[in-house]
């Protein structure tokens, strides 16, 4: 009996604001080009926990920051007050926004806010500065300030993907998955070039098992973030989930896509624990002759990936990988016995045919 189904152990990753793809510096004539996602963050997937197998979905990696906060405007006498803006005319504060984006990427969130405020002193309605400020507030856990800045930005311009993405993360913190999903989707609609929104939207569709929608979103994410391992990881998990709903012929093709996506993630990040774990599950749950391998060879491959996973990351006490290995070893022994029985049957059948063809000798 298999310990996991295709619905189990889906590796999900949500990219928090200020942690994602890099874009070109701000262009005063192109607001979208200034929506830099920020720092390139490490593996936020916590493979030991989020990949844990079971009947239900696992939690996606949560973005950094504090708990939910009541929206509050970042104005007033405190240190978070936005400086009094200057008239919104003259040259755009491109240099200040570039400096703010650089600080955001480096994890210097207070400095990013300072530079964004300098930009807004020169041009009070400069959207790129507001976006950087909102992301930095979010990363500091000042969620009310992040929301208030986005509210102000969207009053000026309705098509700011970064702000809808931040709203999505805020709704996740409130455990409102449906509104989070709606906001991530809205971010992709208003700004189709905003790559991390596609990744977040796809990851959340994957969590709720809308596999076809997840695949469409994550294919967009991988095309826009070809070197981001997490995007390929989630796409592989989505293909794997989709295969569970398909007939044998289509499932084989979809599982092959899942394998390619997971191997791509592993090629982009060596010893990527989440990819190793999901490859193990892929081979454990594989259909007959998947990857041109016998069932015994598939299970050997699954065991190998699980053992690599054990050495790739820091395991937590409740990690299920040892149960997976034991289950795969039991399944392998059964497969080996079945293969021996099949060989004996084949030999008996061959012997019977040879006997029938042998002519009787005349006395």
Which characteristics define this entry?
363 residues; mainly alpha; Serine Threonine Protein Phosphatase 5, Tetratricopeptide repeat; disordered N terminus
Describe what you observe in this structure:
- With 363 residues, the protein is mainly alpha-helical.
- Helices cover 59% and strands 0% of the residues.
- The chain has 14 helices and no strands.
- α8 packs antiparallel against α9.
- The longest helix is centred in the last third of the chain and has 37 residues.
Task: Provide a compact summary of the structure.
The chain has 363 residues and is mostly helical. It contains 14 helices and no strands.
CATH architecture tag: Alpha Horseshoe
Briefly, what CATH class? Mainly Alpha
Give the end-to-end Cα distance, rounded to a whole number of Å: 58 Å
List the secondary-structure elements in sequence, H or E. Answer: HHHHHHHHHHHHHH
Number of strands: 0
| CA-based shape | elongated
CATH T-level topology:
Serine Threonine Protein Phosphatase 5, Tetratricopeptide repeat
Count of helical stretches: 14
* Overall pLDDT confidence: 78
CATH superfamily: Tetratricopeptide repeat domain
What number of domains?
Answer: 1
